[in-house]
Every structure is written in structure tokens, then in C-alpha cells.
């Protein structure tokens, strides 16, 4: 049988990365940050001069990316880009190219390959709906747009990027709208997902809740 997967989907800056990471650590599971894959396609395509609507070229690039993941670090074509891909313009570019079915398909096998023993925690937008529809535990994390903009602001400043609250609120809203309204793999809770609104929750509380759901499922 396949190793277990816990999927954690949700909108931008909902805290899913932090929660997913912590849940993975608690269980000794592997961790997949699927958004990083879209960000890597965004960075690479920007560098080689492929536009976000050149679908065939983007899909080929996504298929052929040479990646290495180790701990929190990611290498793209031999260069460590863990911080570079966190820039807000790369996130927006990722969202723009993630609307294409062919690009998503080019990344599907790569994502499923992370499902190895003893188990996986995967975060993104379509982990529970498309990539791991048979996951025993699915979580849909939300938080108010204000709470998310504040978190993203702090993250960006902590990473040494500049940030502006008004721009962030505008970009978050636009990115959510695009992710939720796209025809292919839109952002939405799986039918069997647990909903978790973390606006007024600490990370510890959110992690404890996900672990409790996992405990009930296995
Ligand atoms: O999660 P993160 O903000 O890093 O993702 C960047 C963008 O990649 C998202 O706005 C979304 O459009 C896209 N994405 C996606 N499917 C995923 C993960 C991310 O479409 N599973």
C-alpha cells in the first residue's frame, strides 16, 4: 500500500507552509512544498526569457528542470535558489503560469514522487483535490486576508525583501482570485477536507489540530 499523505491546501500566506513543515517534523514525514515547484518554473522561465503564456515552452521547461531538495534548501540547475524564489514577483509569475493544464501536468509526477515511507505532508492548492485525492487526511487552511497580508509582510521583511502592506493586500487578493477562478485545478477544499481557519490560532494550535485529525484517521 502507498505511504500515508496529509494534504494541506489553502490560499496564499494562510500559514500552510509553516503548519505543514511542523506536522512533518512531528511525524518524521517528508515534506513537499508544491508551490516551490511553480516558483522554480517561474524563476527559470523568467531567466531564459519564456513568457507566462508560452504554454508549450513552459511545459517543456517544467519537465526538464534539474532540481535538488535537501532540508530547507532547493537547487535549480546547480544554483541554490531557496531565497530567490520567495520574492513576491516570482510568486505572482508562478500563479500566472500555474493556470495552464500542460504546465501542471508536467509537474504532477514530480510531486507524486515525494510520497515515500514513512509518509508525506504536502502543501499547495490542489494537493487534496488533484495530486493526492486518496490522502487519508486533507486539510484546507484559511485565514482572513488581513491576517495573511500581515504574515506575508513579516516573512518578506524577515527574508530581507522590501514590502508594502497596500501592495501586498492588493496582490494577495488578485492572486487568490486567479487561483480560485482558474478552470484547471482551482483552489478549493476537497469534498472530504477538514476546514481550519487560523486567523485567531497560534501555529501550535493549528499543528495540534492537524495531528489530532491524523490520529483519528489511522
Ligand atoms: O504557495 P505559493 O505561494 O508558494 O505558490 C505560488 C503559486 O503557485 C500560487 O499562487 C499558485 O498559483 C501556484 N500553485 C499552484 N498549485 C500548487 C501550489 C502552488 O497552482 N499546488
UniProtKB/TrEMBL annotation:
<protein>
    <submittedName>
        <fullName>(D)CMP kinase</fullName>
        <ecNumber>2.7.4.25</ecNumber>
    </submittedName>
</protein>
<keyword id="KW-0808">Transferase</keyword>
<keyword id="KW-0418">Kinase</keyword>
Amino acid at each position: 500500500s502507498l505511504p500515508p499523505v496529509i494534504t494541506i491546501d489553502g490560499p496564499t500566506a494562510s500559514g500552510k507552509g509553516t503548519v505543514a513543515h511542523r506536522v512533518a517534523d512531528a511525524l518524521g514525514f517528508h515534506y513537499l512544498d508544491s508551490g516551490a515547484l511553480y516558483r522554480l518554473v517561474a524563476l527559470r522561465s523568467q531567466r531564459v526569457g519564456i513568457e507566462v503564456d508560452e504554454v508549450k515552452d513552459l511545459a517543456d521547461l517544467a519537465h526538464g528542470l534539474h532540481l535538488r531538495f535537501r532540508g530547507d534548501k532547493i537547487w535549480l540547475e546547480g544554483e541554490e535558489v531557496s531565497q530567490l524564489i520567495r520574492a513576491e514577483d516570482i510568486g505572482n509569475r508562478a500563479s500566472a503560469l500555474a493556470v495552464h493544464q500542460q504546465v501542471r501536468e508536467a509537474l504532477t509526477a514530480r510531486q507524486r514522487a515525494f510520497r515515500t515511507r514513512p509518509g508525506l505532508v504536502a502543501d499547495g492548492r490542489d494537493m487534496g483535490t488533484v495530486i493526492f485525492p486518496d490522502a487519508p487526511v486533507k486539510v484546507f487552511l484559511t485565514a482572513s486576508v488581513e491576517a495573511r497580508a500581515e504574515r506575508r509582510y513579516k516573512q518578506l521583511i524577515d527574508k530581507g525583501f522590501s514590502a508594502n502592506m497596500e501592495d501586498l493586500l492588493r496582490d494577495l487578493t488578485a492572486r487568490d482570485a486567479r487561483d480560485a477562478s482558474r478552470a484547471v485545478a482551482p483552489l478549493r477544499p476537497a469534498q472530504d477536507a477538514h476546514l481550519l481557519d487560523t486567523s485567531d490560532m497560534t501555529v501550535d494550535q493549528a499543528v495540534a489540530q492537524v495531528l489530532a485529525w491524523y490520529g483519528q484517521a489511522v
